[in-house]
Design brief:
Its cofactor is heme. The structure is a single chain. This protein is α+β, with helices and mostly antiparallel strands. The protein contains 19 helices and eleven strands.
């Protein structure tokens, strides 16, 4: 009887008393927002808004995507401003789309001092485990210390040839398809598959078969976790969708088992055949004493492999896919980039040292990441009270930073905010944004994406090779419907009409 009472008290405390206490604390400190209902919070309103405001596929104001991918936030912005509280189930979140507030909030806080919302850590455990995205505190410092050397300029340069080989194989296949009489290709599927092959080879030394297995299982898990109509943050919601919960766990265990076997095999051959890829460097730098907290466990190594396999291919693939969409709509920019490639590279073999001189390509990449950021939001959790002006963000507060909202804010970017204008980055790395924290393509502060240089190098290599071999235009079959499936994705692929040059 005492045990039953204890469990009832724990449920009451975690699902009602603790959230109410957190909510009142935020209200006392000056924050307001849409009123929640127990136990769904604002989740039902968010789901309803998402269903009624989904994209129609119209090409009018095509890049004005905030109101279609985050319709509830766009609506609440009008009534509650750019900083307010909303609820996922019984979890209150502080929504932030105000760069000055974000700057003051993050000033002086080190990367290790940020937490991750517990509700997301539990929800996304099969996908990321305790990898760098989710880990915090001294564990984050330890993980980051082991991982960072993998992205040194020398190691990145060594990966370039493998990127060229995989991309060339994809483009040769496109030529064969076109030669057979079919000029329309869904490049989204092709780019995603090739990016996965590149990360498998360059970061983990995996052959095609093992890389494909990991990629397919991670992709299936992504759909299982993020395309389902689950109520994240609602107490016991995992029991409402047992099929999806069990499927995600099963996939997580299968991926863990596959990666652990790869790690074990590489450990055995480390002395005789050291490799300077991400996995090789993780293993080579992992000789500390586990008891002293300097070494990654096998489980942590597996989680880092999952994190980087997913993040390493997803961000680059999406940036390239959105770029091909925008260049198909703006053939003048295809011509600008081809001219620059001719000036910088000419007829010489593509070399990683040349990539830094492709400045117009950097403008295009930044503009694509502004209009269609693959990482559409950033989540944090306060590990101490944070003062922002006269307001206090209490320790333990969940935070949701709306990257899409800031990237599409006319108050920051001007009236042409929803236009594709790469030249805005010509003389300003922030693209003329009125606040430098308004442009966050790779996150902010000490927890910025550690693999951003790898992404930029792969982006330039793949795009250079595509532009030198093909011109392309948008297929009449394309339907514009951006959607959030953890990342900002194209719902219906990207069919392009390709013409060999």
């Amino acid at each position: 009887m005492l045990f039953i009472l204890f469990m009832l008290w724990r449920i009451l405390f975690s699902c009602w008393l603790s959230p109410i206490r957190a909510y009142r604390k935020l209200q006392t400190n000056g924050f307001a927002g849409p009123p929640p209902t127990f136990p769904l919070g604002n989740s039902s309103e968010m789901r309803k808004k998402k269903n009624t405001d989904s994209s129609s596929g119209s090409l009018n104001s095509i890049h004005d995507i905030h109101s279609s991918v985050f319709p509830y936030f766009a609506q609440w912005n009008k009534s509650h401003g750019k900083v307010f509280i909303y609820w996922l189930g019984t979890e209150p979140f502080l929504y932030i789309a105000e760069p000055e507030f974000l700057k003051q909030m993050s000033s002086g806080i080190m990367g290790k001092s940020w937490g991750k919302p517990t509700v997301f850590k539990h929800d996304r455990k099969p996908m990321f485990g305790n990898g760098l995205i989710m880990v915090e505190g001294d564990d984050w410092v330890r993980h980051r210390h082991v991982i960072t050397p993998a992205f040194s300029p020398a190691n990145l340069k060594a990966m370039a040839n493998l990127m060229v080989d995989s991309t060339t194989k994809m483009l040769d296949q496109w030529n064969r398809v076109i030669a057979s009489g079919n000029t329309e290709i869904d490049v989204e599927r092709e780019i995603t598959s090739t990016a996965a092959e590149i990360i498998a080879k360059t970061s983990f030394g995996l052959n095609y078969e093992n890389g494909r297995k990991v990629f397919e299982k991670l992709s299936t898990m992504q759909v299982t976790l993020f395309r389902s109509n689950r109520f994240v943050g609602v107490p016991f919601s995992k029991f409402m969708y047992p099929k999806q919960t069990l499927k995600a766990r099963k996939l997580g265990k299968e991926i863990d088992h596959l990666l652990l076997s790869i790690i074990t095999s590489r450990k055995a051959s480390l002395a005789d055949h050291p490799q300077q890829d991400l996995l090789g460097i993780l293993l080579a730098g992992n000789h500390g004493d586990l008891r002293q907290g300097k070494k990654l466990t096998n489980g942590e190594l597996v989680d880092e492999c999952k994190t980087f396999f997913f993040g390493g291919h997803e961000t680059t693939a999406l940036a390239l896919t959105w770029t091909l969409l925008l260049l198909a709509m703006h053939p003048d920019w295809q011509a600008h980039l081809r001219e620059e490639i001719k000036e910088v590279i000419g007829d010489k073999p593509l070399d990683a040292t040349m990539l830094g001189r492709l400045k117009k390509m950097e403008w295009v990449m930044n503009e694509v990441l502004r209009l269609y950021p693959p990482a559409p939001n950033v989540q944090r959790q306060a590990r101490e009270d944070i003062r922002v002006g006269d307001l206090i963000i209490p320790s333990g507060t969940n935070m949701w930073i709306d990257v899409v909202g800031m990237h599409h804010d006319p108050a920051l970017w001007g009236k042409d905010v929803n236009e594709f204008k790469p030249e805005r980055f010509k003389d300003d790395i922030h693209g003329g944004c009125k606040h430098k924290m308004g442009f966050l393509p790779f996150g902010f502060g000490g927890r910025m994406c550690v693999g951003r240089n790898l992404t930029m190098m792969e982006y330039k290599i793949v795009l250079t090779l595509i532009l030198t071999r093909f011109s392309f235009s948008l297929s009449p079959n394309y339907c514009h419907s951006p959607a959030i499936v953890l990342s900002l994705r194209l719902t219906h692929g990207l069919p392009l009409i390709l013409q060999p040059l």
